[in-house]
Every structure is written in C-alpha cells, then in structure tokens.
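From the pipeline queue, job 12 of 40. The input is one protein chain; the requested action is below.

Action: predict structure.
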Amino acid sequence: MIRTAKNIGIAVLMVLFGILSANADECVILLHGLGTSSRSMRPIERFLKKHEYTVYNISYPSTRYSVEELCSRVVVPEIQKIMMKHDALHFVTHSMGGIVVRYILTEHDLPCKSIVMLCPPNRGSELSDTLKSTIGWLYRMVMGPAGQQLGTDSASIIPKLQRLHCKVGVIAGDKSWELYFSWIFPEKNDGKVTVSETRLQEMSDFVVLHHTHTFMMNNRDTQEHVLHFIRYGRFHRE
C-alpha cells in the first residue's frame, strides 16, 4: 500500500515536472504602440513576471521607419535571439504592436501559441485617415512612416496581412478623455481607435473594457484578462 502511494506520488511529480518544463520553454513578448517605448508596457511586464512568466519587453523606434523596416531592423532580430532560448511564444501587444506582430507572422513562421492585442487598429484607423488629410505634414513629422500605414487608404499595410493561425484575444476600450478627437468617431472608441476597428475575423475571444487607449495596459482588469488568455486561450468571465 505504501509502495503504491509512493509510486502514485512519483507519477504526479513527473506529470507536474513535465508541465513545469513545458512552461519553462514558453515566454511572453511585449510589443508597444506607435510613439511610445517599452516603458509603456512595464505594468504588464511586472504583472506577468509576478506570475512567474519569462517576459521580453522589446523596444523599437516606432516613428523612425515603416512597419516593414521596424520588423527587419529591430523586432525580428530580437525575436530570433529569444527563440534560441524558448520553443513557444506568446505575444501581448498594444495598438500598432498588434499590426507589427501580424506583419511578422505574415512573413515568418514562428511557434506562436497566442496573442493578446490591446486596442489594435486591426481594420485600419479612421483617425489616421483624418489626420493625414487635415494635417498631413505634421502627422508625417510626428508619427513617421509607420503612422502613415495604419489607415484604411491605399497606403495602409492592413490589407497585406494574412490570417493568423494561433489563438488571438482582442481587448478594446470604450472610454476617451481626448475630446479633440471625439468628433471624428461615429461610434464607441478609446480616443484613438473605435471598438469595431479593433476586431479581427479569426480572433478567439473579444472583450470591451471601460478604459482609454493610452493607459489600457495600466489597469488591473486588463492585466488579469491578459494572464487568463495566455493560460487558457480565453478571457476571464465571471
């Protein structure tokens, strides 16, 4: 009887060790949005590290190059280094970071298990279209080449992106403090992107939170949804 219990205990430990080993081979890569840096993703970085995930918070010069150049010059080389240590990748992105990872997965075959996108302009940004048509020179100067690719016009990179083949969760916001942009949007938005613009046909789950675009990642419920999706492939439901 004692020997049987001991054998069961060993078997349980072996299963647990296998699970832990599998988790050790995974990591989470964070990609920030346009006009910011990896600093903006630190709240999620700290939260995931507290839950024992290995996290890589990549910073890239988002306003200096096009999406294609950002990926080839900075983001893809960083991911290649990460893949030398891990067999499976999870991505958490903010805003344009979602378009960056979609472009990378269009061009490269990566072992991506899941992606959580915060406020992504997955269908192109109407705000980008408006700013380009009204203050084009200033918008180009401030937001650079990549900023010109996020609209719905012929310059957009969105139509070139292929369908994703991993679990994708999208978190949209419906709260805005940016009154100078509110007149542009005909529907609920986070101050930069409308709720409908964030949607992706192949997404596995979708949730709308009452937060603004810029600070979506700072909120605890956002962080908990991200963690739950990475673990289970779906957002947390009460």
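Job complete. Confidence is low (pLDDT under 50) at residues 1-22.
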